[in-house]
Write a structure and sequence with these properties.
It catalyses: [protein]-peptidylproline (omega=180) = [protein]-peptidylproline (omega=0). The protein has about 325 residues and is α+β, with helices and mostly antiparallel strands. About 30% of the residues lie in helices and about 30% in strands.
């Protein structure tokens, strides 16, 4: 249970305070007021379900406050009175059920490393070392070949050694080719970057559209389900197009009544509809609340907690004690 707002009441001598509890509340403190009348004892009394109890007794200059921990639930008829000459102040808070919701997510490290390697952002150390070793070996082999050629030229006095493949390229041709190759490489890289950027934008747009669709769907579902502070849930299955049911109207209903286990304990699906006067207490309180505002042809699902149905006693043998009831209802007639 969670705290949901302040509750308070001043109980004056020779007056009674009676109410049927609509929302659960808890009394935590009883105190004498600032203005005292006499030094005699004043007792705080409460009547619940036609049974009288004394919660505490307070005496000026001796015991002017008393801590309490008493919770009153929906559907109980409660009456507060005091016996004595002083006013007693009651304070506490309303209480309701909590709801929890959890979400989670994660990332795959191996997939991230593979993506970085593909984009050139992660280098394989072993591959780099192998490449450096191969380059060093190639350079050593070239140096050995040049030394051998020089020795043969000196001993045999043969014509100079022909230039290698690298030397055969004229400087003028090399200088012309380098800018062209560089420009082509830059153009290719630029195209790849633009294509990658375009793909990322498309992916981002798709994710935003999906998120908007999910939010819209969730909003539509929530608009069809109404949760009241008293614990009752009203789900709009179908909105009718006829006259609207209001307090005092005589209405005809089709319905199926079930327990939360799914067991059907009562129904009216054929023959003469079930008629009653709305808002006159002729049915359980959950029906007066849940049917109000429907239009002819409309359908609703009502989840009614025990205090708004048959309470702690139930309706044996079909409805057990403290039972939450589920009704599928349809408004078919209105007089």
């Amino acid at each position: 249970m969670s705290v949901q707002g302040f509750w308070g009441l001043q109980v004056v001598p020779k007056k009674t305070y009676t109410q049927v509890v609509a929302a659960p509340f808890r009394v935590t403190m009883a105190s004498l007021g600032e203005d005292l009348s006499g030094k005699g004892r004043t007792s705080l009394c409460v009547k619940v379900d036609k049974k009288d109890f004394v919660l505490c007794s307070l005496t000026p200059e001796k015991a002017e406050q008393q801590r309490l921990d008493i919770t009153f639930v929906e559907g109980e008829e409660v009456t507060f009175t005091v016996k004595g000459n002083n006013t007693i102040h009651l304070t506490g808070n309303y209480v309701f059920d909590d709801e929890e919701d959890e979400e989670g997510g994660g990332a795959d490290l191996a997939s991230l490393e593979a993506l970085l390697k593909q984009q050139g952002g992660l280098v394989d150390d072993e591959a780099e070392e192998d490449s450096e070793e191969e380059e060093e070996e190639d350079e050593d082999e070239e140096e050995e070949e040049e030394e051998e050629e020089e020795e043969e030229s000196e001993d045999d006095e043969e014509p100079p050694v022909q230039p290698t493949k690298k030397d055969k390229k004229r400087p003028a041709e090399t200088e012309q080719e380098k800018p062209a190759k560089k420009a082509k490489s830059e153009e290719t890289q630029k195209k790849q970057q633009e294509q990658q950027k375009k793909q990322e934008q498309q992916k981002k747009q798709q994710e935003q559209q999906k998120k908007q669709q999910e939010q819209q769907k969730k909003k539509q579902e929530e608009s069809k389900i109404k949760k009241l502070p008293n614990g009752m849930i009203i789900e709009e299955v179908k909105i009718g197009d006829g006259e609207q049911a209001k307090s005092g109207k005589k209405i005809g209903m089709r319905y199926i009544g079930k327990l939360t286990s799914g067991k059907v304990f009562d129904k009216n699906t054929a023959g003469k509809p079930f008629f009653f006067n709305l808002g006159r207490g002729e049915v359980i309180k959950g029906w007066d609340i849940g049917v109000n505002g429907m239009k002819v042809g409309g359908e609703r699902k009502l989840t009614i907690p025990a205090p708004l149905a048959y309470g702690k006693r139930g309706a044996p043998p079909d409805i057990p004690r403290n039972a939450t009831l589920v009704f599928d209802v349809k408004l078919v007639a209105l007089k």
